[in-house]
Amino acid sequence: MSLGLKKYDGLCDEYMDKVTLYPNILWQFTLNKYIEAERKNRFIAAKLKKTATAYARNVFLQAITDNVSFSWPTKLKFDWYLPDRRIDPDNWTFTQKFIFDGMQKANIGKRVFLDNDNVKNIKGFDHDFYVDKVNPRLEIYEMEVVHEI
């Protein structure tokens, strides 16, 4: 299975860098699943966080290898194409914690995908949700920042 990097968006005629993760993997790290694990045992929840961060790290390591990068500081766009509507959007967006942690842990030599996920680099984010039963995915793009904090 591909980690999910594409440089061309077929919806338009320009190239853009984006990173794609897959909900069929991310669903096990949603908010309700994490709370359930935390209530059972904090070590189970810690393992869940470690696993989720490792998945995201691997995706962003592949991004570095494929020369996909974002120009920090930036605002991020999360387009969620989900297989159905059974899991609430707030449960899905919780996984961005692990995604940002994975971005920070992804480095090859001196090439780091994201050095820090503070407000200096992350100017904001926007989430949109769609249903795509055939090809569920999470696409992350950088958006233009129009003003500084």
UniProtKB/TrEMBL annotation:
Report the GO molecular function annotations: magnesium ion binding
UniProt organism field: Leuconostoc citreum (strain KM20)
Highest taxon of the lineage: Bacteria
**Record protein name field:** dTDP-glucose pyrophosphorylase
InterPro entries assigned = RusA-like_sf (IPR036614)
The alphabetized list of GO BP terms reads: DNA recombination; DNA repair
